[in-house]
């Protein structure tokens, strides 16, 4: 167990995975600060953030201020703990100077991109959607601007061509926890010199709140590489989907959960169905939909969908 007094700020599954890794490596927070419980789903059931449930299981103290800037109790709660340092992993709230100054050794942030590339809250989706072949984890010292502080450490990793959001998300979270575990003692022992970010290389992500269902709509005329990246990036949220015309003049909506690209001699191009395949053909290549979810149905293999619907589809069947 490391003799470091720190407060952990987080909310979602990324935070949970980072904190699990920290604890495995001997770093246990004195306090976890997270967002308030909030309504979730169609029934708007009040649900605690995932990090709260984890902290409760491990008997780690929890605080849930509505705002670090406006809730005066937040500063009081932090000050009473006399922390050395703060650690942030997808907390989702802004820090002001008053809060930052409560930590004698500063506040460190783990961010799942190679900053200054992909500042913002959707760096993993942005990297996949952009077709990036490399990403990584960056540890920065927090300042008052979003993902702007100086870099303390970075670790690069290739993006596997068939890697989906949820796989890369988990891998980067675990990397982040391990990198933090190396950085924290070095930072406390003043063995790291912060490096300012190169502002000329800054790119920004799209906000989650700005992502609509339309972002997941598949355009069958766009390059299939772009559609494949779209499926990989949006497999969790907001989801990729398309509308299929049926011979009875109705349409059904299907979500595309997984896919792959393969060589084909099929003609013509466009949305095509075969005996056991279904996807988009372009220039001797086919984006094959492997797993789908028709509206109102469970997830299923494409072969199972075709078995009951192939003759009903108003698209070329080869």
Which class best fits the helix and strand makeup?
Answer: alpha/beta
Mean pLDDT: 92
Main sheet overview? 7 strands, mixed
The percentage helix is 25-40%
- Report the end-to-end length measured between terminal Cα atoms: 63 Å
State the shape: elongated
Question: How much strand content do the residues show?
Answer: 25-35%
Count of separate DSSP helical elements: 8
- Look up the CATH topology of the largest domain: Rossmann fold
Runs in which pLDDT lies below 50 for 5 or more consecutive residues are none
CATH class of the largest domain: Alpha Beta
The largest beta-sheet arranges its strands as 5-2-1-6-7-8-9
Can you characterise this structure?
With 318 residues, the chain is an alpha/beta fold. It folds into two domains: 6-201, Formyl transferase, N-terminal domain (Rossmann fold), CATH 3.40.50.170; 211-312, Roll (Methionyl-tRNA Fmet Formyltransferase, Chain A, domain 2). Helices cover 26% and strands 26% of the residues. The protein has eight helices and 15 strands. The chain has helices spanning 13-24, 50-57, 72-81, 97-100, 123-129, 165-188, 224-233, 302-309, and strands spanning 6-10, 31-33, 38-40, 45-47, 62-63, 85-89, 107-111, 134-141, 151-158, 240-245, 251-263, 270-273, 278-282, 285-294, 300-301. Strands 5-2-1-6-7-8-9 form a seven-stranded mixed beta sheet, with helices on both faces. Strands 10, 11, 12, 13, 14 and 15 form a six-stranded antiparallel beta sheet that branches. The chain is elongated and about 70 Å long.
